């Protein structure tokens, strides 16, 4: 499958609120079949495991998780994340 560039006005994008485990110490392993997910760590500390790889989640870290990639998060110190999910279907 070839991915295509997505161009939209921000005002045309439907916002879908999600807690994605807000307040939890762990977000269990899961995958989004049709959604790429992007994380920017603003503060705190944790670890993401994605595709079997442990990734430190520290301030000023960006992590891109492509659709279908199994991932989980363990929070070590309360984190603030900026997260964008882009569904392609």
Characterize the structure shown.
With 89 residues, this protein is mainly beta. The chain has one domain (21-87): Jelly Rolls. The chain is 0% helix and 54% strand. The chain has no helices and 5 strands. It has strands at 26-30, 35-50, 53-57, 61-65, 71-87. Strands 1, 2, 3, 4 and 5 form a 5-stranded antiparallel beta sheet that branches. It is globular. The mean pLDDT is 84.
First-residue to last-residue Cα separation: 13 Å
Strand content bin: over 45%
Alpha carbon gyration radius: 14 Å
The CATH class:
Mainly Beta
Pfam family, one: Cupin_2
Protein name: Cupin domain-containing protein
InterPro entries: Cupin_2 (IPR013096), RmlC-like_jellyroll (IPR014710), RmlC_Cupin_sf (IPR011051)
List the helices and strands and how they pair.
Layout: E1 26-30, E2 35-50, E3 53-57, E4 61-65, E5 71-87
Antiparallel strand pairs: 1-5, 2-3, 2-4, 2-5
Structure, briefly:
By secondary structure, the chain is mainly beta.
Features:
single chain; 89 residues; Jelly Rolls; 5-stranded antiparallel sheet; 0% helix
């Amino acid at each position: 499958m070839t991915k295509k560039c997505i161009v939209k006005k921000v005002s045309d994008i439907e916002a879908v609120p999600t807690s994605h485990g807000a307040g939890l110490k762990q977000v269990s392993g899961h995958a989004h079949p049709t959604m790429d997910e992007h994380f920017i760590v603003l503060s705190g500390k944790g670890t993401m495991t994605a595709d079997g790889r442990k990734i430190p989640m520290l301030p000023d870290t960006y992590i891109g998780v492509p659709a279908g990639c199994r991932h989980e998060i363990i929070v070590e110190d309360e984190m603030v994340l900026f997260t964008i999910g882009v569904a392609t279907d």
